[in-house]
Amino acid sequence: VRAQPVLDAFFRDAMNCTLLAFALNTCAYTTEIFAGAIRSMAHGEVEAAKAYGLSGWKLYAYVIMPSALRRSLPYYSNEVILMLHSTTVAFTATIPDILKVARDANSATFMTFQSFAIAVVIYLTVTFALVGLFRLA
Hints:
Layout lengths: L4 H8 L1 H26 L3 H10 L3 H30 L12 H12 L2 H25 L1
Helix pairs in contact: 2-4, 3-4, 4-6, 5-6
């Protein structure tokens, strides 16, 4: 990393490091979720699509991917919600999150229950909204 001005500038910012870490972590889990869904595809469906005369691209676009996406959606929704909850880890890289704002409000006003209750309500609202959106899909 030394003598690389672009990388040096990128890794000096805590937000960039945090986003890169979260992106790599989520990308790895998401890749395994979708790869597992594709591997769990019934061979009979693929053979039937090939017998029907679908090419490789159409086979993936019309048969494999729709089925794999439907199969992987519950697991992917869990990953998205875990990603939301793991944003509190960003505090270790000096990135403020909802919990940090609640701690600051508690320090300023000494209203512990109210400040953390608001943080809980925000987390629960976003979580239930995500769950609702994934159930609609």
